[in-house]
Write a structure and sequence with these properties.
The protein is mostly helical. It has a domain at about 1-110. It contains three helices and no strands. Keywords: Coiled coil, Membrane, Signal, Transmembrane, Transmembrane helix.
Length: about 170
């Protein structure tokens, strides 16, 4: 009797589990849909067994109660199969998500490696640009020196010429 009471108390909770809709139940040929369909058939059989009253005074006989218990046990077994299938589906979905996550991580690492290489190349190019600018400044400075030397010699020759001219004029 305790067993029947337990099964009857468990029935509403189990029957509510039928109303849960999962994203991967959409395929009509899936194992889960077949199991849920079989469970619905068992539930209908249990409901019919509940209505049977074969005892002398209109109550349920031992045979009726045995049928109810047997059907409830089948429903529980079917629920366990459904849960096992849900776990299998969840595990396969988790494995697929992990694989996708691994692919994404690999791509990110590849892009980070490429961007790191590009950043290093960019740094090297900036260093080379700075060295080239310094060389250009040095070359410009060196190209100014002959002009400065020439200008200095010209000024000194004019000053020398002026001094010589002044001496010649004084004498």
């Amino acid at each position: 009797m305790k067993r029947i009471f337990f099964l009857l108390c468990l029935l509403p909770a189990v029957s509510q589990a039928q109303d849960i809709r999962y994203s991967y139940v959409a395929r009509p040929d899936s194992v889960l849909n077949l199991l849920v369909g079989q469970r619905e058939d068992l539930y209908k059989k249990w409901s019919e067994d509940q209505q049977e009253r074969n005892a002398f005074f209109g109550g349920q006989s031992k045979n009726d109660l045995r049928n109810i218990i047997a059907t409830m046990e089948k429903i529980l077994k079917k629920d366990n199969e459904i849960l096992a299938e849900l776990n299998r589906m969840k595990n396969s979905e988790v494995a697929e998500l992990r694989r996708k996550n691994s692919d994404v991580n690999q791509r990110v690492n590849t892009y980070l490696g490429e961007s790191g290489a590009l950043m290093e190349e960019n740094r090297q190019l900036k260093d080379q640009l700075e060295r080239n600018r310094r060389r250009l400044d040095d070359i410009e400075e060196q190209s100014r020196r002959p002009f400065q030397i020439t200008a200095g010699l010209l000024v000194m020759s004019w000053v020398g010429f002026f001094l010589v001219w002044r001496r010649v004029r004084k004498v």
